[in-house]
Amino acid sequence: MKYSKIVGLGHHVPDTVITNEYLTNLIDTTDEWIVERTGIKERRYIDHTKDTVANMAARATRMALKRAGLTEKDIEFIVFATITPDYFFPGSGVLLQRELGLEGIGALDIRNACSGFIYGLSVADQYIKTGAYKTVLVIGAEIQSTALDLTTRGRNTAVIFGDGAGAAILQSSDKPGVLSTHLHADGRYAEELYVKDPGSSRPHKERQPEQILDTSSFKVFMNGNQVFKHAVVRFMEVINEALNANNLKKEDISLLVPHQANLRISQFIQEKLGLTDDQVYNNIMRFGNTTAASIPIAMSEAFGEGKIKENDLVCLAAFGSGFTWASSLIRW
Ligand code: UT7
Q: FRET label pair with 305: which of 17, 198, 217, 277, CA 20 to 30 Å apart?
């Protein structure tokens, strides 16, 4: 029996720190409101002259390779989770492949928003278990800042998102690794958190950009209340599903790395699971919600801080646009 194991983690966030105070210059909001409702104090925004989704991913990859003692040439396949690709098409997977000088290897893009990294992990895990590949790179990377409505109209959405990239390198191993992944979706809620354009849902003439009079459809729309209510239910469900599938108990979890959606959501799950502050990794205070990038950035930081050790049981869980939700249990 082959397993997949995470052998390297890396991350990259842009240099520009955007504080809550800075946002009060653009939006009718306050530091108190943002901290109380979301836990966020600051986030990072890209510098358009130097940062792209693909090159942030490349920097995260190089950090992961270094930690794993591997080089670019060891990577056999790329799984790239993003909902903010550099181009509408092709996806950012091929751009990262070019950036890493890996012409010829396969590159797959995943568009499952906040759950994208766990969906990507699941794909990589299956390829490794079946013997198709020995070393797979999984990325979560996003540039949300340039799609936000940074006016008072967009304030419940704009204040939570940020930019960044995270990378995980998976390799085949005789010992577990990724114990399981659990993936779910409910498309009835697709429009509760979405960016409509440039989509193909419009008739021909209306799809041409010059015909679109109300361009708010290019910005992120989120029904925050609705998303919050579903998130707290689905997070718990999918974590319990993972524990049950592996005959494990919540007491067995060494570290929970939840998608960084809102600190209040993470605290709710922590309380339900009876975990201590040390058993839940949160960095939303510093980076906001970076969609598919949030879990690999958080895992990479947790690893760097010595919070993930050999034999630990790490639980990942996510919820977001789609709606999609997912979990994974990993024996380190
Ligand atoms: O990662 C993908 C998944 N995303 C999530 O899981 C996000 C889930 N949702 C949330 O985190 C929360 O819904 C938000 C943080 C986005 C919003 O918090 P909320 O407590 O649900 O606020 P609300 O939208 O119900 O708004 C409450 C009040 C409203 O004012 P009134 O109508 O009560 O007078 C809003 O206009 O707060 C107002 N408000 C703000 N005030 C100051 C909304 N955004 C802001 C703001 N600053 N930024």
A: 17
pTM of the predicted structure, to 2 decimals: 0.97
Q: Among the options 11, 182, 230, 259, which is catalytic?
A: 259
Residues 137 and 27 in one domain: yes
Query: 259 catalytic, yes or no?
Result: yes
User: 229 lies in which domain range?
Assistant: 179-331
- For atom 47 of ligand 1, the residue with the nearest CA is 29
Distance CA 70, CA 151 (A): 45
- Which pLDDT band holds residue 212 (cuts at 50, 70, 90)? confident
Would the pLDDT of 1 be above 80?
no
Clarify whether residues 142 and 222 are in a common domain. Answer: no
User: How many C-beta atoms surround the C-beta of residue 106 within 10 A?
Assistant: 16
Reading the block at residue 5, the tokens are 């194991």
Q: Are residue 17 and residue 166 in the same domain, yes or no?
A: yes
For ligand 1, the distance from its centroid to the CA atom of residue 198, given in whole angstroms, is 26
